[in-house]
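To the wet lab folks,

You asked to see what we're planning to order before we commit. Fair enough. Below is the target structure as tokens, and below that is the sequence we designed to fit it. If anything looks off to you, flag it before the synthesis order goes out.
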């Protein structure tokens, strides 16, 4: 396996070398007019500061050149050329770091050909003496081959090894010289396998290592794992997390993964054939890298990989060097990667790049966009008025219904038993069910009208306070009601856990029930949230409602809550204020709404609203104006417009909506709706047209159609049908599922 990655350096915008050869850097030139004396003084001051900075950069040039000369001398001693991929990458990063630090100054960079020529001369004469050392920290579980690898690198027994029990019981430095390069290994006791009983012992080892390297930090960190024991059941993530917690995320920045037992040939469990060596190494490397990403919460980190085989019977080449199944001489590759990493660490130290190294999740949260906030502001908000009617159209329909209820004029009907109903023919059954449905619709309309009239009388003060008090005293508390069970996903468990989600509605007006998450982490419990709802009337004109939901899993905590209060003026206007709180990662979004509804005419309602959104240090202010016109009780037109602004940006938007209700509204929610919305920001406009319809073609069947299209020719169409009688409709869904599965299988083939 060819290892192409060496120590990483920060991004260019952080004044650090880049990670890939394709990355470029740029600098902006500032143009200053020479006719302005004040600007001329600024230019002179700038030139003086640049001159001073150039002097500092000139002091670094000899040190950088001396480091490169040492690097070329080591390459000569090990018999390596500049064409080696690791050497090429190291020289490229040194050159790029030098250019970034030089910036726009006139200081010239270091020439590799000059450093190479001086290295040849010094190496031939042996003067000055090569002073180059590498400190390597060795970490890993017990028994993975840390001490054996140290012995293989020095080609002699420097550390005690044991195949059956831990051989290293204390931290020790193993020092040796290889071709004039001083190599210092910091050998550490092995960690125990990740488990709750071993956490304390592993933490003690890590803390002792942390104290040991405090005075003399290592240049490289090697984390050891056995290549032949890594599989999908890799369970050492808690150990990686503990290492990150004790040493900090920065320890992974100069860490190299070392895979021991790299000559082991694995076979497929099903076929028995050998597994491809390259594929197996890539799979194991990606698996460990994935868990390191989770430990540091940063997916940009990429660690180099070294393959090691310490078995005495390992295959060797003609020169007696141990080679891997892919033909690679692992010992020379090991030393070369450590030397290149050491050179890059020294370059970073000279150019002072260490302070710009940061690992972990991004601290900049996602900021809500103005178009999204404006769309939310323009949405129609129903005010929870104490009248019991939340829709303007409903209120107008009930207020105009002065005629006598049709339900009271119906003749009595005889309710049939099951046996009597079965004796009817098909046409009689249909007529009987339609008659029952018609009577049910009229009865529900009557109930809604009576409720509305009762609330209106209460608001207008026609009923005496004493009468109301007496009625409240004689009113009995409602009985507890058991809510319907939740739809729990199918499971192979013999005990269905639906009883865990049952909820009882009592007279205290508080509804508390768990939130079911089908993909929850706890299979036995299945819920990780609580939902809370309540609504109350403070007095005849003021009402309030609270709704909230809290969810918590192993990693995230989220909360959503909506609090609203409404006041109904006996003269007509309705005033409403609300506070919404939503989680956005680790931050909270606060939204304050204020609405006022004015009824200018009997069939016309005007709504004025303002909003204030706070997210971190950003604040968004918005306002809207909405007008609703109702024609013939069934046709409603809604026109609104608004704007929202923040940080010097402004977004404008508006919408028009026409809705035609069914004749049985509000009992039956049959409707057809056409809408058009426009939004503009930064001289860009978005137009969206929509169509929505919900109707019942026959008894027991509901159809919902939804379609939208924008000016960029993007949109969607959805069609939903549900039936309580015609089960053959489900065949359409079954056909669609099988067709999708067949198409997926064909695509994979």
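Sequence we intend to order:
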């Amino acid at each position: 396996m060819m290892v192409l990655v060496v120590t990483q350096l920060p991004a260019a915008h952080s004044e650090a070398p880049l990670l890939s050869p394709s990355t470029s850097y740029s600098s902006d030139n500032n143009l200053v007019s020479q006719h302005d004396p004040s600007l001329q003084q600024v230019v002179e001051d700038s030139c003086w500061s640049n001159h001073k900075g150039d002097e500092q950069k000139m002091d670094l040039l000899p040190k950088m050149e001396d480091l490169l000369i040492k690097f070329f001398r080591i390459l000569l001693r090990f018999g390596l050329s500049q064409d080696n991929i690791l050497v090429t990458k190291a020289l490229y990063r040194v050159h790029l770091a030098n250019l970034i630090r030089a910036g726009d100054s006139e200081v010239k960079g270091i020439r590799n050909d000059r450093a190479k020529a001086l290295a040849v001369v010094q190496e031939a004469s042996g003067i000055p003496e090569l002073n180059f050392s590498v400190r390597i920290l060795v970490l890993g579980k017990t028994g993975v081959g840390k001490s054996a690898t140290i012995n293989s690198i020095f080609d002699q027994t420097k550390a005690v090894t044991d195949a059956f029990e831990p051989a290293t019981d204390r931290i020790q430095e193993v020092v040796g010289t290889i071709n004039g390069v001083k190599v210092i290994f910091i050998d550490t006791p092995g960690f125990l396998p990740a488990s709750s009983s071993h956490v304390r012992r592993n933490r003690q080892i890590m803390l002792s290592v942390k104290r040991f390297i405090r005075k003399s930090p290592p240049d490289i960190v090697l984390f050891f794992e056995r290549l032949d024991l890594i599989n999908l059941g890799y369970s050492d993530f808690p150990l990686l997390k503990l290492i990150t917690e004790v040493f900090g995320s920065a320890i992974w920045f100069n860490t190299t993964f070392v895979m021991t037992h790299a000559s082991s040939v694995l076979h497929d469990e099903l076929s028995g054939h050998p597994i491809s060596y390259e594929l197996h190494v890539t799979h194991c490397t990606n698996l460990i890298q994935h868990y390191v990403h989770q430990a540091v919460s940063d997916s940009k980190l990429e660690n180099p990989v070294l393959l090691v085989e310490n078995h005495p019977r390992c295959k060797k080449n003609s020169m007696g060097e141990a080679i891997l199944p892919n033909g690679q001489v692992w010992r020379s590759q090991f030393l070369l990667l450590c030397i290149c990493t050491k050179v890059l660490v020294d370059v970073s130290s000279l150019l002072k790049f260490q302070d710009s190294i940061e690992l972990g999740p991004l601290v900049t949260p996602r900021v809500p966009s103005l178009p999204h906030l404006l769309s939310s502001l323009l949405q129609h908000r129903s005010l929870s008025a104490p009248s019991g009617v939340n829709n303007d159209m409903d209120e107008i329909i009930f207020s105009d219904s002065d005629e006598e209820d049709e339900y009271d004029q119906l003749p009595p009907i005889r309710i049939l038993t099951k046996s009597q109903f079965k004796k009817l023919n098909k046409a009689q059954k249909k007529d009987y069910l339609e008659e029952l449905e018609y009577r049910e619709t009229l009865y529900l309309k009557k109930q809604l009208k009576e409720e509305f009239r009762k609330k209106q009388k209460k608001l207008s003060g026609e009923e005496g306070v004493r009468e109301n008090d007496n009625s409240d005293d004689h009113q009995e508390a409602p009985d507890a009601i058991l809510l319907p069970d939740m739809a729990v996903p199918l499971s192979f468990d013999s005990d269905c856990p639906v009883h865990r989600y049952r909820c009882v509605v009592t007279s205290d007006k508080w509804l508390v029930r768990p939130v079911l998450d089908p993909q929850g982490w706890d299979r036995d419990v299945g819920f990780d949230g609580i939902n809370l709802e309540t609504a109350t009337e403070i007095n005849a004109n003021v009402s309030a409602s609270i709704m909230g939901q809290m969810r918590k899993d192993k990693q995230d905590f989220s909360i959503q809550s909506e609090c609203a209060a409404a006041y109904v003026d006996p003269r007509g206007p309705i005033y409403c204020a609300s506070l919404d709180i939503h989680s956005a990662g680790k931050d909270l979004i606060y939204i304050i709404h204020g609405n006022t509804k004015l009824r200018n005419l009997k069939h016309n309602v005007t709504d004025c609203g303002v909003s204030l959104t706070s997210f971190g240090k950003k604040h968004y202010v918005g306002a809207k104006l909405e007008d609703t016109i109702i024609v013939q009780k069934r046709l409603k037109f809604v026109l609104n417009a608004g704007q929202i602004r923040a940080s010097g940006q402004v977004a404008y938007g508006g919408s028009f909506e026409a809705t035609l209700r069914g004749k049985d509204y509000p009992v039956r929610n049959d409707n057809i709706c056409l809408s058009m919305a426009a939004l503009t920001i930064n001289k860009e406009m978005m137009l969206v047209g929509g169509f929505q319809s919900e109707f019942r073609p026959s008894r027991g069947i509901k159809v919902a159609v939804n379609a939208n299209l924008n000016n960029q020719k993007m949109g969607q169409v959805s069609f939903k049908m549900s039936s309580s009688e015609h089960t053959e409709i489900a065949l359409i869904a079954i056909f669609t599922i099988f067709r999708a599965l067949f198409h997926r299988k064909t695509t994979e083939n």
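Structural context that might help your review: The radius of gyration is 38 Å. The chain has a mean pLDDT of 76.

Thanks,
Computational group
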